[in-house]
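Let's practice the habit of predicting before peeking. Look at the sequence and jot down your guess about where helices and strands might fall. Then scroll down.
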Amino acid sequence: MNVNLTPELEQYVQEKVKSGRYNSASEVVRESLRTQLDQESRRKEINRLIDEGIASGESIDGEKAFAQIREYTAKRKKEIAASKTTKPQKAA
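Done guessing? Here is the structure:
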């Protein structure tokens, strides 16, 4: 396979090889393609999760959700603190 690059991309590849991190232009291109494939895979997974979320039903406002989480957390902290103070002490 023969690939034509713009002058800018060719310079970029040459700089990567000169840096010593890569032994050849082919290595630079292979890693770039692997990175692109990985990003594409992640993008597909994110889109799948978004679609799953949309299909799961009604959504709520993010601020409202975080307010509910903070409220629940504060309530649980109070319950835990109260349970620690009401536990009977062991007799010596």
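How did you do? DSSP finds three helices and no strands in the chain.
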